[in-house]
């Protein structure tokens, strides 16, 4: 199967993408992984991306598209893939369609992971990270530490990352609404979109998605 997973920041796309890719035996292709792999391997696209990132500028669509197309041509993706974070705008969606058409392929589904905006803000703004070990993550409401501001595992100080502040989260949501959300209507016109509630336990969300794909 060839699937695009769409949803706002904080909707749980990364978690669901990993679960779905494993259940469907297809590779999970995320934009973040593409950038890290290309930059660490020093590919021409990776070097271009690094130049823009080091200058504090957005990486152009053509670089991201090139990375995605290279990855989709790898052997493990020959039987399908799950795209997470790509496409993120109409231009990238059109480029993906062009790539698929050129290779006589098609998308099977676009899963729209829906979470209310205030829940997204609560999820992200409530995160607390340990300064001593960043793998120790808590949540002010959903997974609070035993002692306020103190890591249960090592006693380190817990803090809120600047990227997780409410103001930053709302800015990220505004970008999602203006740039990425329009691809949902783009794919609805092709009859590909199924909206899945992202609320509840991760396993419940995965089951909804698998049912929507006819794989329950």
Automatic annotation (TrEMBL):
Swiss-Prot/TrEMBL catalytic activity: AMP + ATP = 2 ADP
EC numbers, comma separated: 2.7.4.3
GO MF annotation, one: AMP kinase activity
Keywords: ATP-binding, Cytoplasm, Kinase, Nucleotide biosynthesis, Nucleotide-binding, Transferase
Region (NMP): 30-59
The Adenylate kinase active site lid domain, residue ranges: 127-163
Pathway: Purine metabolism; AMP biosynthesis via salvage pathway; AMP from ADP: step 1/1
Pfam families found in the cross-reference section: ADK (PF00406), ADK_lid (PF05191)
Main location: cytoplasm
InterPro entries per the UniProt record, alphabetical: Adenyl_kin_sub, Adenylat/UMP-CMP_kin, Adenylat_kinase_CS, Adenylate_kinase_lid-dom, ADK_active_lid_dom_sf, P-loop_NTPase
Tagged with keyword Transferase: yes
Binding site for ATP: 10-15, 127, 137-138, 200
Chain's role: Catalyzes the reversible transfer of the terminal phosphate group between ATP and AMP. Plays an important role in cellular energy homeostasis and in adenine nucleotide metabolism.
Family, as annotated: Belongs to the adenylate kinase family.
Name used for this protein in its record: Adenylate kinase
Source organism per UniProt: Streptomyces hazeniae
Gene responsible for this protein: adk
């Amino acid at each position: 199967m060839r699937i695009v997973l769409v949803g706002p920041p904080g909707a749980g796309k990364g978690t669901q993408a990993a679960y779905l890719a494993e259940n469907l035996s297809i590779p999970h292709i995320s934009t973040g992984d593409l950038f890290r792999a290309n930059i660490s391997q020093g590919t021409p696209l990776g070097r271009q991306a690094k130049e823009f990132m080091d200058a504090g500028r957005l990486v152009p669509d053509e670089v991201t598209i090139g990375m995605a197309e290279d990855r989709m041509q790898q052997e493990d993706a020959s039987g399908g893939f799950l795209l997470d974070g790509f496409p993120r705008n109409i231009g990238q969606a059109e480029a993906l369609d062009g790539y698929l058409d050129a290779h006589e392929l098609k998308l099977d589904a676009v899963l729209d992971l829906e979470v209310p905006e205030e829940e997204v803000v609560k999820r992200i703004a409530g995160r607390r990270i340990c300064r001593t070990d960043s793998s120790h993550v808590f949540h002010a409401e959903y997974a609070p530490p035993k002692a306020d501001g103190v890591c249960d595992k090592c006693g380190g100080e817990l803090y809120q990352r600047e990227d997780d502040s409410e103001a930053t989260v709302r800015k990220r949501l505004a970008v999602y609404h203006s740039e990425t959300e329009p691809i949902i209507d783009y794919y609805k016109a092709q009859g590909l979109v199924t909206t899945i509630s992202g609320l509840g336990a991760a396993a419940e969300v995965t089951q909804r998605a698998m049912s929507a794909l006819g794989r329950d």
